[in-house]
Write a structure and sequence with these properties.
By secondary structure, the protein is an alpha+beta fold. It contains 10 helices and 11 strands. It has helices at 7-14, 18-26, 45-59, 64-71, 76-114, 118-128, 131-134, 147-153, 184-198, 264-277; strands at 5-6, 42-43, 165-169, 172-181, 209-213, 224-231, 244-248, 251-260, 281-283, 289-292, 305-315. The strands form 2 sheets. Strands 3, 4, 5, 6, 7, 8, 9, 10 and 11 form a 9-stranded antiparallel sheet that branches. The longest helix has 39 residues, at 76-114.
Length: 316
């Protein structure tokens, strides 16, 4: 096909997901070609060279925003400034982790000396907030810090304006399925993935994957719900007894990216919520969403996810 390759073939060749490639295209990092009478998108040699550059820069743990700025500029100064900023950020991360390690080591030493049991030790930790630990040694060390300094170091975990994208989602038709159990994400995802594969929707440019708690977890109850959406194009398959369709009206969102393990998701939502509270926006009332950017059969495992979190907005 004159050197053109399908998105699915490129995903396999470069060990990335089709959704990641579509995401890069949506934000202007990549360009594809759509042939006449074809619902698929193809990539030429120029696009593949660009993809290789993107993947190399991402391996350096540079943000997508930084990668876009680098590949869009011919100015070496842009690359130098971004790399310098990344080094400074890593140094702050290292400093914060060293401070936390020192405090926990001091706390452990105190527990061993005093012979506390587990619950008394935890109570001490809560009451002291590590202040007593910092003051427990008279001698100064190279790690000695004030609690205010520790709090400032932890500010690196707060979202800044550069971490947020303001996006208006347009109305879209979605297929949906909801599961309710002690592991509803995995259960809902398994059913939806089977339906997507049966209907060959994986390689379509229109296919995106969203989810949200429905209903949300409650204290003391291990059972909750999770609803999964898959966006549909013009040539959508038919509904089934299990998979139904509906139209989402869209809305304005603050979007932040997060990855890690399942325990990190609530913390990421808290960071996003805190950013919104300090912005010109407030909670918009429409549906919160999690867009799954790594889509494979294991992507809802407890230790693997990359999500865009969509926080509904309206102006204050």
């Amino acid at each position: 096909m004159n050197g053109l390759q399908k998105i699915g073939d490129i995903a396999i060749q470069y060990n990335v997901t089709s959704r990641t490639l579509r995401y890069y295209e949506e934000i202007g990092l990549l360009s594809s070609i759509r042939l006449d009478n074809s619902q698929y998108r193809f990539y030429d040699e120029k696009a593949l060279l660009r993809l290789e550059q993107i993947l190399f820069l991402r391996k350096l743990d540079l943000s997508v925003k930084d990668v876009k700025e680098i590949v869009s500029s011919k100015d070496l100064t842009v690359l130098l400034n971004i790399c310098t900023h990344k080094i400074n950020s890593l140094e702050k991360d290292i400093g914060s982790m060293e401070s936390l390690k020192f405090m926990l080591e001091e706390f452990l030493n105190l527990l061993n000396m005093k012979g506390y049991n587990a619950m008394d030790g935890v109570k001490l930790l809560q009451q002291s907030n590590l202040i007593d630990i910092c003051n427990s040694k008279n001698k100064k060390t190279k790690h000695e810090i004030e609690m205010e300094d520790f709090s400032m170091n932890n500010d690196i975990n707060k979202l800044t304006d550069s971490d947020i994208r303001i996006i208006k989602l347009r109305p879209m038709k979605v297929a949906y399925y909801r599961a309710e159990s002690t592991s509803p994400e995995q259960d809902a995802w398994k059913v939806m993935r089977e339906w997507v594969k049966e209907n060959s929707l994986e390689d379509l440019f229109t296919t995106r994957y969203f989810g949200f708690n429905n209903p949300s977890p409650t204290q003391g109850n291990p059972v909750y719900g999770y609803e999964v959406w898959v966006t549909l194009g013009d040539n959508a398959p038919s509904e089934t007894d299990v998979i139904n369709f509906k139209t989402f009206e869209g809305g304005l969102y603050a979007v932040a990216n997060t990855s890690g393990n399942g325990d990190d998701i609530p913390k990421a939502w808290d960071r996003l919520h805190n950013w919104v509270e300090q912005s010109q926006y407030c909670y918009g009332g429409h549906q919160c969403l999690e867009e799954n950017l790594i889509v494979d059969d294991s992507s809802w495992g407890p230790e693997k996810f990359t999500l865009d979190l969509y926080y509904p907005l309206k102006l204050k």
